[in-house]
Amino acid sequence: MFADSARIFIKSGKGGDGHVSFRRELYVPNGGPDGGDGGDGGDIIFEVDEGLNTLNDFRHGRKFVATSGQEGGKRRCHGADGEDLILKVPEGTVIRDDETGKVIADMSGENRRQIILRGGKGGLGNMHFATATMQVPKFARPGKPAQERWVRLELKVIADVGLVGFPNVGKSTLLSRVSNARPKIANYHFTTLNPVLGVVDLDGAAGFVMADIPGLIEGASEGIGLGHEFLKHVERTKVLIHVVDAASTEGRDPLEDIRAINEELGAYNPKLLQLPQVVAANKTDVIYDDGESENPVDRLKKELEPQGIRVFPISAVSGYGVKELLYYVRELLDQLDPEPVIFEPEFVMEVDGTANLPFTVEKKEEHHYVVEGPRIEKLLGYTNLDSEKGFAFFQKFLKDAGILDELERAGIQEGDTVQMYGLQFDYYK
Fold first, then answer.
1. Among 66, 82, 35, which Cα is nearest to 149's?
2. SS3 for 10?
3. pLDDT by residue (tens digit) across 379-408?
4. Interatomic CA distance for residues 275 and 308, integer angstroms
5. Which of 349, 410, 417 is nearest to 383 (CA)?
């Protein structure tokens, strides 16, 4: 069975405790402290495995725990570090905090390996605490605690083009004709229960990846049927092809089908309606022309093309009109950003209590302020400020952490410059 979601518990390793001991050797009856440091706990690391295409490995094992660091030993012996636990996932896996639903990481694009939970730091042994006035320290520092969290994994297919439409309109047949994909095809509803990817090769033009998104039904955005399971796979696509039964072989109105599916897309995620759309009016080879009724393809064109949505009459069975459809889709893709759709982090994973560490706001000169602190440095390390969503996330962090309030108390005015490590921006309310 194709598994594209899983809820799992992850926990890093605890840091090993520092050791308390004193040097006791022949002729050295009162030696100094020699307790060693504890080892660091193991990290929880997610890594993309090109050989995986489902989350089946997480259906049965639900708890994943890295090993803890060992306690320090006598004679300044350092405890062994815990082993990292590496969880391999298919490309396109989005890791969300289960409680809030916010994105922790997207294992796509250049992000092939990411530490999600860091192990606790090992504690210091008593050898570090000897001073001139306290030469026999009988204490050591305990290891830092482990981090733990329930997370939800969601596999969202990475495709340039998504085929959407009601069941049994010919999406699988179209994909099998234009690509190397071999989806199961039969004449009954919900034949396709898994997203199927195919690579479309074009003569004289760059190819693209097309996904057959399993058939939608009305109410899908509310979770009716398998709605949410299907809709999430549309989120990474850049162009949508509505496949409709232009011949109405099952009595459905193709124009009403398009409206219904757009309603479901908008209810699930309004941004999906901003994607370029094309209509593949399928099954034109079995349209019955009585000479009196309006041709259904002409009706679709009259309604949709004034809205900028091109309509292509095709037959997925014979291949009629398919070439023209594919080259037009390629033209649309050439006008769009070629990089895959990446979900920006929305959830800050705290490391070693950095949420409680202080930050500093300093006025260096007139109209120039500098903000520094370990949590800020970490956040800048993994937030993509070039994207609108990433920058909005960063602004929310500045507000929630009290940094903006502190800048205002320091006297900042609109248009003044704020510097945070390698980042500089102008301050505006």
1. 66
2. strand
3. 665 566 666 666 777 777 777 777 888 888
4. 12
5. 349
* CA proximity to 295, closest of 254, 240, 259, 323: 254
Structure token pair of residue 99: 């409680």
Query: In angstroms, what is the C-alpha Rg of the chain?
Result: 29
The encoded tokens of residue 185 equal 């095809």
Q: How far is the C-alpha of 31 from the C-alpha of 146, rounded, in Å?
A: 34
Contacts of 125 by beta carbon, 8 Å cutoff, 6+ apart: 18, 19, 20, 21, 33, 34, 35, 36, 37, 38, 72, 76, 140
The average pLDDT across 303-325 equals 92
Q: What residues contact residue 95 under an 8 Å CB cut-off, 6+ apart?
A: 46, 103, 104, 105, 106, 107, 116, 151, 152, 153
Query: How do residues 107-141 score in pLDDT, each as one tens digit?
Result: 888 888 988 998 998 998 988 888 777 777 888 88
pTM score of the predicted model? 0.66
What is the pLDDT, as a whole number, of residue 159? 82
Contacts of 307 (CB under 8 A, 6+ apart): none
Structure tokens at 410: 């320091």
User: How many CA within 13 A on the CB side of residue 306?
Assistant: 5
CA distance 161 to 197: 10
